[in-house]
Amino acid sequence: MRRYDSRAWVLLLPALGILAVVGAMPLLAVLNYGFHDIFSLQNVHWVGLQWFGDILRSDRFLASLGRSFLFSALALAVQVPLGIAVAKVLLTCGRWAVWWLMLCALPLVVPWNMIPILWLGLIDRETGLLGSALTAVNFDYKFTALHTWALILVMDTWHWLGLVVVLAYAGLSSIPPAYRQAAAIDGASRWALFRFIELPRIAGALSIVFLLRFVDSFMIYTEAFAINAGGPGDATRFLSIELGEEIKGFSYGQAAARATLYFLIVLSVVWAFVVVTRRREGEP
Amino acid sequence: MIRGVALFALAVFMLLPLAQAIILSFTATLPKGGVAVGTVGLMNYANVLADPDLRASIVNSAIVVLLNVSFCIAVALPAAYALARYRFVGDRHFLLLILVFRVTPPIVLSLPIFILFARIGLVDSPVGIALVHCLFNLPVAIWILESFIRAVPREFDETALLDGHSGVSFFLRHLVPAIAPGIGVAAFFCFIFSWVEVVFARILTVTAGKPITMAINAMFGFQTDIGMVMAMTCLSLLPGVAMIWFVRNHIARGFALRV
Q1: Which domains does chain B show, CATH number per domain?
Q2: For chain B, which terminal residue's Cβ has fewer other Cβ atoms within 10 angstroms, N or C?
Q3: pTM for the model
C-alpha cells in the first residue's frame, strides 16, 4: 500500500517546471493570441470571439472535422484489432516472438517525413516494387479519393501497428498460464477467453494505445500532406492541414483560435475517455 | 498453416517499404560524377558522408536525442518514484495533467513555442528542440518508470535507507540499477519520438542546428537525387535499429494508462 505523504510533491517539481515552460506557457499564449488580430508582434488588436465564430460557422471547418474523425475512427478500427491479432499470433511463437516484435517496431524509428516518401516510392509506376501490380488494378492515388484514403490508411497502419503490437503483447504475455488452463478446464470458448481473461488484462495498455493513436491520427499532418496535399479536391483535407495553411499564410490570430479549438476537441475526447476509465476501475 | 501465412504476410507488409528504400539507396538515380543512372554500388552512401551538412545533421540529431533522454530520465525518475510509492494531494491531477500534455497536438503549440524560444535564444539550438520534446516524452517516461518502480518491493527502499544511504545515493546506487531495463525502455520511447519528429524540428531550426529530418527535407529540390535521400534514410535508421536491439527483451513490459 502506498503511504500518504504530501512531501512527495517535492519530487514532482522538476517535471512540473519543464512542463510549465514548454507546455502551460505556450498553451496560455495560444489561448491569448486566439482573441487577437496579429499583424506583427507589435501590432496586435483585440477581436474577441470573432475568429472562433468565423471558424465554427464555416462549412470547410465542419467538413474537415468530419474527415478527421472518420480517419481516426478508421485508423483505430483497423489498427487496434489487427495489433491484438498479431500479438496473439506472436504469443504462440515462443522465443521467436522477440524477433517479430523487433520487426513490427522497425517503422517506429523511420523519420516521419520519410514515411510518405517510402510509400510513394513503393507504389511508383516505373520504379516501385508494387508499381506494375497497382497500375494493373487502376490504382490512382492522385485523382481517386478512395485510393488516396486507402493509401494514407495503409501507410499509417504500417507506421503505428508496431506500437499496438508491442503494448498488446506486453499485456497478453503477463497473463499467468494458470488462468488459461483454468479457462480450458471450464470449457471456455476462444471468444470467452478473450473477453473475460485477456481483454481485462490488456485494458490498461489498450487505453493508452487508443488515446495515442486517436490524437496522432486525428492530427495527422506530415504524412497526409506529403501524399496528396489534401487532394484530390478536398478529399483528404484534415483539420491539421487547414491549420498548417493558416500558419503558412501568416494569419496567426486565426491560426491560434483554430489551434485552441483543436485542443479543446482533443481534450473533450480524452476527458470522456478518462471518465469512462475511472468509472470502470471504480467497479469492484 | 494459417499462422504461417499470417506471419509471412506480416513480414512482407513490414519489410516491403524498407526493401524499396534499401534497393534505391544502392542505385544511382541521378547522373553524377560520371556514374550512369541505374548503376549499383555504394556511391549514394559515399555522397551522403561527403556532404558536411548531412554529417552535421546526424550529429545534431544525436545531440538532441541525448539531451532529451537525459532531461526526461533525470526529471521523470523522482516523479515516477513519488507516484509509485506515495499517495498525496493531487496525485491523480498530476497524472491527468501529464496525459493532457502528451495528447496536445504539436501543431497547436508550434507558434507560441517559436516566439517564446526566439525570445530566450533557444532557436537553432539542439537544447531548444530537446526541451520541447520533453513535453511529449516526459509523460511516457513517467508512466514507464512508475510501472517498473512499482514492481520493486518497498522493502528494497527501506533496507537501503537503513543501511545509511541518503536519498540521492539510494537513487543512483540502488534504484537505478534495479530498474535499469525500465530506463532502457523509457529511453527507447523518448528516442523514437525525438529522433524522427518533424513539426518542432522544422519551426525551431531556421538557419542552423538542423536535425536529420530537416536535412532530408532540404535534399528535395528541382532535381532530387532520390537514391541519396534513401541512403540518408537508411543511415538514419541504424541508431533506431540499435535501440530496438538493446531493449528487445524488455520492450514487452510496455506501459499502461494511469489516471
Answers
A1: 42-253 (1.10.3720.10)
A2: N
A3: 0.88
